[in-house]
Amino acid sequence: MMTLSLLKKISGVAGFAMIGLLAVNPAQAQSNASIDAAVATASTWVALADSNQTERMWSSSGPTMQKSISKEDWLKYLATVKTELGALTNRHWEQIVHVTNPADLPPGEYLNVAFASRFVNAPAVEKVSLVQSSGKWIPIGYVITKFVPAPAAPPAPAPAAAAPK
């Protein structure tokens, strides 16, 4: 499972900060059913991109997203990213991050659902941001970040030969 620090390193996208890991236990406000509903919503919504239903993604997103990016820019963004990455071959959700009242967004309860995804041309992390509204999770953001592994460390130099005695 990817760690928060790894996702932060590979995300590089401002505005979708991952503030803290969501630990699911009875004391928390988020119920297991709500978490399941959020993952289902995020999974269904991101699958629209796979079937080239990007206009439907935009129209079913929340007003926060629709105010921050035009439909035309949304379509261009997804077309560019999908062209670079190629077709999806595998996806599974990897992490959920719960955020309350984040900076630069209206007050409320938010979740970021991160997917570890493999496309024909590269692995990537997909993040779907959701806001809770009227008991439902509404998508308000989608960021795909191509995973670029760190360069391999150079081989260690060979030990120097011992001087003859």
UniProtKB/TrEMBL annotation:
Top-level lineage group: Bacteria
InterPro entries assigned to the protein according to its UniProt record, in alphabetical order: DUF4019
Keywords in alphabetical order: Signal
Pfam families: DUF4019 (PF13211)
Span of the signal peptide: 1-29
Protein name, per record: DUF4019 domain-containing protein
Protein species of origin: Collimonas arenae
